[in-house]
Records
---
Amino acid sequence: MVELPSFDWPRFLPGWVWLVGAGPGDPGLLTLHALNALRQADVVVYDALVEPAILDWAPGAERVHAGKRGGKPSPLQRDISLRLVELAREGRRVLRLKGGDPFVFGRGGEEGQTLVAHGVPIRVVPGISAGIGGLAYAGIPVTHRDVNQSVTFVTGHDQTGQAPSSLDWQAIARASEVIVVYMGLKHAARIAAELMAAGREGSEPVAIVTDATTPRQRVLETVLARLPEDAARVEPPAILCIGRNVLLRQVLDWREGGRDADPLGTRARPDSA
């Protein structure tokens, strides 16, 4: 068992629910606050993308699977939220463990609202989101001053499972040099079509990162015009990154070794500001 350093760690009180981010996969990316929560919890309600090794850090807790995966039988979100209320009212210390960060496309906000509406006290423990940490493990920085001054995070589907109709793809395509799409494989064809119709080049680099930060991680590099056919042969979970920052993987792919010291065609700057 990992020993926590000396610190005034928060006490996990009975009847509370902690909404905790488990990070993108690698157990080493878990925060110390998350580890502290795991060691005190009576019950862990966990998502499908949480690595099993992380659950081993809560040896005394009951485990309740509440994973939601697209296209597969999944519990209803309302039922998950009400189950958290029920467990808390039993006087248990309830850890709701969510992949990535609970407030980044993780429905943590919805669950928190339900808990507060039912008078259940909550604590939020942020986690590293796959759209940042997962890309870093692929050697892709989400920001780089030779590439982008903005990055946009979007979801590939809405509550109905369809591509989000509320997104203004024209505005996103014009305003953001780099676009990171969560859960976008199913609707990759529409996403690519919308972006190219809005003026993005078909030759724009794209990376598809699956099982990010785990030993199963794979990265497929392609371009926007080929995204639909390449995405069709990849299994989720996956993050899509669209933008020239994908080229930096040629030098920053620290897990496999870089291939090109200057993929952007610019000299490295002497300063670090």
---
Amino acid sequence: MSVKIFGELDTESLCSASQTCKLWHHIIEESEQLWKRQCLLVRAACQREVDGDRRNGLSWKVTLVRNYARSCLKNDWLRGRYSYVSSAEELSGRKMTPLDAETWGEILQAELDR
């Protein structure tokens, strides 16, 4: 029942819940089902990266951790959050992560389409 309830949480809330007590931490850490669900949401933005990590034998949790920030950043770029940045100072304090050439191609195409 706990896994079903935890399954309703988003990634950040799930990570916070795992820090609540030892029992919740154990339930969340040991549930591949929870991490898989979250990872498949990230896969919508970072399919190549997630699929590559899974092919390389990484667990759902490790794959999620490796790709969560990348998916958030990519979604922000694709939604146009950074469309009108005129200098690097405007990005100061924002967490950036490396993106591959194909991802940059998608972002540039989205900018051209706007």
---
Amino acid sequence: MRTVRGLVAGLLAVAAIGLPAGCSGPADSATGGSRTPSSRPAASRSTHSPTPSPSPSPSPVSYPLRGTGSYAIAPGHSATLGRHGTLLRFQVAVEHGIDNLSVSGFADQVVDILGDPQGWTAGGDWRLRRVGPGQPHDFVLYLATPATRDVLCGAAFDRYTSCRNGDAVVINVSRWLHGVPYYHDLTAYRDYAVSHEVGHRLGHGHELCPGKGKPAPTMEQQTLGLHGCTPNPWPYPHGRRYTGPSGEYPLVVPTDPTTWYRPS
């Protein structure tokens, strides 16, 4: 089981401006989905005890097409992930306008992914540590709205994929909440999205599917399709490095705007 040190300190607040009604994501938790949902059975009740009132359901995560362009930086810091290799420090930033999502909770999920024994620290080349506001850092991992994604990525109109641009690792909130149709496990897709984009920051380029029915390399553009491979989020599945041939697929994203923006 993975362990993440609890976060400390206060949240860096940046003034937010008024936003239009946005789109909604899963309502299973304030972070937009837990990696380890509880399967504990309900406790038995005495027939003489009053039935407790049900707890209110958390509000679904929602976001506009374009956020404010300002961010909340997750407070505190994590333990160092990995035991050997070059240390890179990173911040986690969530764009204002993404509502009902815990900034600290999202940061915990990112640390959980990057610290996984099948993740980038498994090979001994890298150590990673999340740091808080005002701390020296080597890159920032953003959770951004679809239109802001285009700004941060410095790319042509897309609004669908995530990216890495210099020291900005950008996760599109639409993909974080909704995944892609052929990744039936949203948690696994989130593992992939973070691993893939951070992989670019670590110097890795795109790779191709190595053969029909084989697991996709982490650096394959799995958001654009599996191209005969099966889903795989990890660079070190079962603790061993796994790669494919160097190359990339054409950037063909859905033209239906509901794939990147779903008004409530």
